[in-house]
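Internal tracking record. Fields below are filled automatically when a chain is submitted to the structure queue. Please do not edit lines marked as system-generated. If the sequence contains nonstandard residues, flag them in the REMARKS field before resubmitting.
Queue: standard
Priority: normal
Entity type: single polypeptide chain
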Amino acid sequence: MGITMDKMIDIHTHILPGVDDGAKDIDESIRIIQYLYEKGITDIVLTSHYISNTKYNYNQIARGRILATLREKLNNDQVHLYLGNEVYLSENILDLLEQHEISTINDTRYMLIELPLTGYVNNLQNILCELTDYGIIPIIAHPERYEFLQKNPKRICELLEFNCLLQCNVASLTGKYGKKAKKLIKWLLKNDLVQFVATDTHYVEEEPILENAFKKLKKMVGSVKFEELTLRNPFKMLRNEHMEGNLEYLIKEENRKK
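SYSTEM-GENERATED OUTPUT FOLLOWS
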């Protein structure tokens, strides 16, 4: 995969047609891809929802076939598509992986994980421990949207201690997901806890939300960090390269408590 420094890689989208609450058909998928391409995004991971015991349960083989058809229909060799999932955390997540129901991102060790927006997974840390022992590196999708973190951002340590990486939705900076999410994404960025910023695109926005959000992000973090969040880190992840977690923050927090 080539890499151009003025381009971006989007690791969280819902573009695969007909499998979740994103694109309904291939024509809509192509419109969304073109929409993102116009924003400067050349590499896109199609992270369809996988939620056990719901209709969002297309397995890896089915999604792979749909992706092959989409690639065939897409008339743009400047855009590269990759398969993944946004997996809703569950106790049987390793079984689902071994049964090829769910997939990591581009068959790497990295998996995009979604938590409940409200409430809390009582056995969260046990599941994360099992994943990391298995060799999976969890990427937590849009942590700024979770109620338990909005109430107490320092609880992010409950995720970071299992080497979880964080992916924030860029549109949170515009207030798209509410004031609490906007406040929390700013806190996460200020504390240098975010490894990826993505779009979580489900459809073509009529308003220039993404343009404004990316401008806000670059203004807030600077061009070097912007490139790291939207290009360099996603590039490393797609190539299955090692990425550092947030160990320094954890150490600082532990020292602060002493």
